[in-house]
Amino acid sequence: MKKILALALVLxxxxxxxxxxxTLIMATNASFPPYEYVEGDVIVGIDAEIAAxxxxxxxxxxxxxDMEFDSIIPAVQSGKADFGMAGMTVTQERAQLINFSESYxxxxxxxxxxxxxxxxxxxxxxxxxxxxxxxxxxxxxxDLYATWDIEDEGFGTVSRFxxxxxxxxxxxxxxxxxxxxxNEPAKAYVAANQGLLVLETEYTVENYAACIAKDNEELLANxxxxxxxxxxxxxxxxxxxxxxxxx
Length: 247
Fold this sequence. Notes:
CATH architecture of the largest domain: 3-Layer(aba) Sandwich
Number of strands: 15
Order of helices and strands: EHEEEEHEHEHEEEHEHEHEEEHH
Number of domains: 2
Shape: globular
Largest sheet: 6 strands, mixed
CATH topology of the largest domain: D-Maltodextrin-Binding Protein, domain 2
Structural class: alpha/beta
Distance between the termini: 37 Å
Strand order of the largest sheet: 1-6-2-7-15-8
Radius of gyration: 18 Å
C-alpha cells in the first residue's frame, strides 16, 4: 500500500499559513537511504529535505507519495504527482519522457559483493568467460547499465527486484553474485548486513535531478530558480552533508 506522508520542515513553518494553501506532490521510492527512507512514520532523507526547502521557497506544502521506482515517471506524466525525486539519474532515455531539473547531487553506481567473492573489481563483470547474476533495483540506472554492459553482451544475467533491499537480501541468500546500486545506499546496506562489502572501483558516475512533466514548464522554471537559490546559499550542501558526512 502506498504511504502518503506529509513532510514539513522548519523552513516551511516560517511561511504564513495563507502562502501554504497549496500542495505539491513528490513521487519517490522510500527505500533508498540516505536520499529517501522511512523513519518512524515519516519519509526523510536528502531528497525529502531538499524538496521541502524548494516547496517552502515557492509557498507550497510538500506531500510525499511513496511508490515503486518504476512508477515514478508515469505518476509525474499522468499528473498524479507534480515532480519526482528518488536519487534519479539524468539519462537521455528518461529525458524523452519527462523534463529534468538542474542537477543537485552527484551519484556513483557501486558494486556490493559478499566477502571473499571472486568479483574484486568492476571489470571482472565483463571479463572473458564471466557469467555472473547481477542483482539490481528495477528501472534504476543500475538496471540499465547492467542490462547494456553485462546481459546484452552475454557476460551474465540481470535479476531485477522492486527495491534495493530485496536485491541485497538476494545477495545475502546467494541468489545473486553481486548488486549494482548507488554508492550511498550501498554503504547503508553493507553496514546493516554482516559479510558484505562495497568494491573500491566504481561502476559509473552520474548526476541526480528531479523529474517534472513535459507540459509543466512553469513548475520546472520555478523549481530550478528555487533550487539555484538553495545551492547558492549553501542549503543543499548542508542537507547533503547532514546525511553524508565528509570522510
